[in-house]
Amino acid sequence: MDMHTRQDPQLMKIDLTLCLQGCALLQGGILIASALAPRALAWRASLAPLPPLLRQMFWVYGAFIVLCILAFIGITVWKAPELAAGSPLARAICGFVAAFWGLRFLVQIFVFDARPYLTHWIYRWGYHALTLVFVLLSAVYGWAALGNQTH
Asked: SS3 of 8, please?
């Protein structure tokens, strides 16, 4: 095997660890974008006609999603090397996170119709960048879940 085709397992682990840490940063960016969404989409005015319970549920569900993403960030920041190592628990966690972002990507493509809100180039750019981030997160966490099985 020549030098160009041989892969050092330690280098692969380092690369995956760095990729996971980058994913933590990207998820932080998603949270920043999420914090801007209620104002940009006029949630207060749009939700005002709903009964109070439905309005409250909408905000609570949003808060729980934020807590999940914060957990993904925290676990990834503090345990990226362990996630990259490929233990069964690490692969299960990464598989769940990959599925979460993969399903979020599918919702973005097949459920949401954001066209009425993409009225400015920055909104269009942000929407498409967010879509790409969902794919990237799914791919990296999927790689960690499926591609590095050491146990």
From this structure: coil
